[in-house]
Amino acid sequence: MSHPLDTLNWPISTDRLLLRRATPDDLDATWAYRQLPEVHEWVGAATTDYDDYRERFLREEGLADLLIIELDGGVIGDLTLQVHDAWAQDEVADQAKGVQGELGWTLDPSSGGKGYATEAVRALIDLAFGSLGLRRLQAECFYDNEASWRLMERVGMRREQHAVRDSLHRTKGWLDGLSYALLAEEWPASE
User: Fold this and answer.
1) How far is CA 175 from CA 136, 149, 171, in A?
2) pLDDT tens-digit profile of 3-50?
């Protein structure tokens, strides 16, 4: 089954970065930052064992949604875009197929604070609303993951929900969760 990202011409260049589809060859580069404690703390599915990470990374469905962020030929992070259907009543359900997306990101901490994540996520939003024609994007995080929700705000996403202790963290227990979203009509077209 084809993935919506298959329809795009890769790679995509931004001012400083290159975005491309992930390949099995990206395993070690992504493991290098994903196994760091400060990254491991917030990712949705974290493994501390290389063999477990390799098995998860190489699954076809895992690679399908994953994009690599490169700076000067080196991998500095990754993005995900999962396209899905919107909720709809039966009579109009066909119009709700594949119209929404959920964004995710992970950046090597050594590349943080330089605007790379913002640049990469903006480029992904451009693709989602432009080439893919999605109507709505959303992203979620723990309230305690301030770097993530600040990024959502920097790219213009709107906080839609602050839920009290609804999100279970692997070591911190029940934490507050945040949901952000953006509609295509709210996104300025790329220059």
Assistant:
1) 26, 14, 10
2) 889 999 999 999 999 999 999 999 999 999 999 999 989 998 888 899
Q: Which two tokens stand for residue 14?
A: 């931004």
- Give the per-residue pLDDT at 170: 94
With beta carbons less than 8 A apart as the criterion, state whether 121 and 105 touch.
Answer: yes
The partner residues of 146 in beta bridges, in order of sequence, read: none
Read off the tokens for 54: 């390799």
Q: Which residues pair with 71 in a beta bridge?
A: 74
Q: Which two tokens stand for residue 186?
A: 């709210």
Determine how β-strand 158-169 pairs with β-strand 18-21: unpaired
- Domain at 4-186: CATH architecture: 3-Layer(aba) Sandwich (3.40)
| DSSP code of residue 63 | H
Q: Which residue spans within 85-157 are E strands per DSSP? A: 100-107, 136-142
Question: Do residues 152 and 139 touch, judged by C-beta distance below 8 A?
Answer: yes
